[in-house]
Amino acid sequence: MLESFTQFAGTAFMQRLTLWLNHVLASEEVAVQRLRPHAGRCIRLQMSGWPSLLPPMPELSFVITPAGLVEWIGQSAPPAPDLRLQVDASNPALSLVRGMAGQRPAVEVSGDAALAADVSWLMDNLRWDLQDDLARVIGAAPAHELARIGGKLAGGLREAVATLAGWVSRDGPATRGPTAR
C-alpha cells in the first residue's frame, strides 16, 4: 500500500515538475531554440547515494520534444541516454542548504557534448520570472511589490543559510571582510 502511494505521489510530482520546467523553458524563446536541434534525445538525471531512509526518487528521464520542450518519460527511458547528469545526493539536506545559498551542486556529465553544452547554458542562464507570472494574476504593481519584499526575504534567507552552511561544515560562520564603520 505504501509503495503504491509513493509511486503515485512520485508520478504526480514529476508531471507537475515537467509542466513547470516547460513553462520556464517556453518563457524564453532562446531556450527552446537551443533545445530544438536536440529533439528526440534523452536526458537522465541520476541522484547517486540517495539515502535509503527516504522514499525512492522517481526516474528522472526526459526526452526533448520537437517544440524545444521536455517530456518526462520515467521508466520507459532507453538504457543508454544521450546525456547523463549524475548528482551526489547522499546528503539531501546539505544539498538543499547549499542550493538555497546559490551554490550549484557538483555534476558528473557523460554523453553528447553539444547537448551537454546547451543544457549547461540553460542551467546558467534560465530563470523563472515569478514576478511576471504573478502580474498576470494580481496585476503589475502588486506583483512588483511582492517581488521586492520577496527579494529582501530571499536575501536574508540566503545570508542565514550561508551562515548555517558555515556552521555545518565546522568552519564556523561564513565570514565577511571587515565591515565599514
Structure, explained:
By secondary structure, the protein is an alpha+beta fold. The protein contains 6 helices and 5 strands. The protein has a 5-stranded mixed beta sheet, with helices on one face. A hairpin with a 5-residue loop joins strand 2 (60-64) and strand 3 (70-72). Helix 3 packs across helix 6 and helix 5 (130-138) runs antiparallel to helix 6. The longest helix is centred in the last third of the chain and has 29 residues, at 140-168. The protein starts with a helix and ends in a 13-residue tail after the last helix. The model has no long low-confidence stretch (mean pLDDT 79).
How would you concisely characterize the structure shown here?
By secondary structure, the chain is α+β, with helices and mostly antiparallel strands. Helix content is 51%, strand content 14%. Strands 3-2-1-4-5 form a 5-stranded mixed beta sheet, covered by helices on one side.
Overall morphology: globular
Mean pLDDT: 79
Strand order within the widest beta sheet:
3-2-1-4-5
Low-confidence stretches: none
Output the helix-strand order. Answer: HHEEEEHEHHH
The value of Rg in angstroms is: 19 Å
Strand content: 5-15%
Helix fraction, binned, reads: 40-55%
Number of helices: 6
Number-wise, the strands total: 5
Largest sheet: 5 strands, mixed
